Amino acid sequence: MAKPLPKSILKPRSVGRETAQPNSPSRSLVHLGDRVCWDLDKAANPHMVILGTSGSGKTQTLKAIVWEMCKGFPSRSIVLDFHGDQELPGEVYHPIHMASNLGINPLTINLDPEGGGSKLQAISVAATLRRALVMGTNQEGLLILMIQELYERFGITQEDCQTWTRKPPHLGDLELAIDARAEGGCKDAKALQIKLAATFQYGVFSRSQIDLTAGKLVRVDLSKLPPELGAIAAEAILKQVMDSHRLAGESPALKTFVFVDEAKELKGSKTLDRITADGRKYGLGVVLATQRETHISPDVLANTATKILLPVDVADIKKVASRFRFDAGRIANLGTFQALVRTGGTAVACTIEPFFKRQA
Ligand SMILES: Nc1ncnc2c1ncn2[C@@H]1O[C@H](COP(=O)(O)OP(=O)(O)O)[C@@H](O)[C@H]1O
Ligand SMILES: [Mg+2]
Asked: pTM (2 decimals)?
């Protein structure tokens, strides 16, 4: 039987104007700047989008929020760092690159009896690879087939959920299977070899998986990977985090926040749509920062209660105003490092206090 959601999360939304001191020990307020805060008790959901042009202060804003959360909230923060500039005190640091000891295994199976298993994992991984590496439907179909065969070779079948906890294959095993098939003369397998060459060469998907629960603040540095491999890694991590939260059941407490700077690398991510639609129920929130509104899907936009708008490119103002429902004049008048913040209702202006000014 599902637990009812706490009233606090379902309250009407508005951006909080602080009544307490900015660094008071409240569990729901994240100080943003001036006397404005992100009030998680008042927000309909714990998701946020930060939009601003290059140099507008997104990274400093994001780091400031992670920092405040780590200090004042019991939740875990996972930072997906595409640029390698999100370092924070007290973090558990997982660099992912050609020579790193640990990696990410996209073939890790979702153990949820409803919606998990090897077949669905094969479909999901093939879709991610197809999107990131731009493949045709034949190649995607072959990938699904081959990944399923691979799971079966590892004794894992969709039908028997007892087998889902067995050690899954990794992409290195897939590479060998594709090579064998290509040598047998399969043209689509040869095409897959070419498409996946860089993915395999980096080896990051063929190693033991990093521990995303290794600390209260975990940063995964994807900056040494080509963008398409970073996107595959980030998508796999997001899916694992969402799957594990779903499996653990509904949670009134916010257990985990995932932070993604430069979220354009995740444009089109189905998992981000899923997290923003459903994550709150399972205690999972996501904070995304990006330069252009086109990087944010309609689903993510609709399901993200809190928006922070930093100065955007002049050419984007009209579109941003209409999609994010901010007044175009107010956006155009934003000064350097000024922001409009809205949770639900009215937008409030403030100057974000950047991370570098917050450290004691
Ligand atoms: N509120 C602020 N006040 C003063 N300087 C800031 C502020 N926010 C960011 N900066 C500085 O501006 C520069 C760009 O900020 P950054 O957060 O990296 O922008 P973005 O990620 O949007 O490109 C950095 O040198 C940063 O230290
Ligand atoms: Mg930045």
From this structure: 0.90
